[in-house]
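Example record

The entry below shows one chain as it appears in the dataset: sequence first, then structure tokens.
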Amino acid sequence: MKITLTKKIKVEQLEFIGEVNFFDADSPYIELLKNITSEHNLKDELHQKGLTNSAIKNVISKLESLGVIKNGYLENIENGFPEKEYGKYELVIFENDTMLPFIYKNKGIKRIDAKPWQKYNSLTQDQDLINKVKDKDNKEYEINKIENNKANITKLASSNLKIIYENGSWRYVLDNKSFEMTEIHFNSLFDGSWDEENKALKIDFESVLEQANAAESMEYSYEVPLDIGQYGQLTANFKSIPVIPKTQEDAKLWFVYLLKSEIEKKNRYISEYELQSLWSNLLSNKPKFQKFDLVFDFDLILKEFGKDSRYYWLLRASTDLYPFSNKLLPKSRVVIQGEEGIDLQNTLFKQFNIKQPQKLIIVDRWIVNLKQFEALEKVIEAFGRPNTTIITQEIKEKRNERSIDDIIQRNGIHRIVKDKRDIVHQRYWKIDDEYYQTSESLDFITIENGGIRTKYTTFELYDEKDLDPNLLRIMKVN
């Protein structure tokens, strides 16, 4: 993404009489003072070069008068060796009315009537102007003194200041020169609508629909005037900003809208089973939606198309009319559906119709956040704490990593971490020697106010011979 903030700033021309240091990067003094740290070191060096005491005294005196030697030690001269001048100069100054990212900035200086440096003991200081022309980023010259009552200020046409965020860093551009600067917090720019965890702008579904391809790319571009507190008035151009749904309802509508496109691409009958698979695939490809715990909603998908759409009827058609057979036919189905406050332990045992299992293996690439691990703990408790292994990705919620580790240790969970591409897409549970496939993973369990709520989900029982060999391979754990 790229952010460009622009604002008009003042430009002034200052004509003054005073003293200026110009830094000479090629001065022979640079070589002489290399590796010299003090006046004492320098005197030793000059003695070794054969200079007389008088000559050495003159060199030391010059360096002291130029400020190169202070209190017996050498000052930093990495910008070049300073050569003082006295005379009349013309300086152009940029003036910003906020602290972002500077107050005063020198554009350039011009000699009008300059003379080689000499001492002017009677030179008086205009301290206000000196403070105004100090520019720490200027490596070419430094204004030491400006005589009182000998400065003329002329207003020039305003100029554009550009503040740019690109490739992860902030900089500002002025007079075609670029300078680094401290970052601006995104919450200030986006009026508190920045999602720090997902590094994305929270936006409502209706707004994202107004821009072509924004819903699909999950990037949004726009330009607006901004008034950001201490930063003042700016014009902001936001290009390809990552976005995320603002609310749960926005997420639901947005996700179904994307799923609708996937259905239209197929342009044929789709069974509810395949539709659930499309839902899961899309959720994997759009990970920003995972924080919203979206549950497969067949009725909402139908509503999105409406009864006047042919796709509505293709989805509503009986499974018997679906012309694409599925070679994986489950032996049986286990349906989990409960109300708030249901006894999860009795539900699991009753619905699965099994005795207390000894071994549980779950293949699910999305057991990656605290909510999923809390649900997993409830499953382990309900099954009487079997030997549990999960095969999944790296934890996505780093801020909750300690709490997740506590659950893993407390329940003796063996967690096998693999890359996303190495884990089969569908979710599978192996309970002792039986293999179940489910589309909802652990999202069918939510924990609210200390109680447990179960959502509708289906587990389909399969013969081992019908399953993907890659799945069986990764499930072979001790």
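Notes for this example: Residues 318-327 have pLDDT under 50 and may be disordered. The chain has 15 helices and 21 strands.
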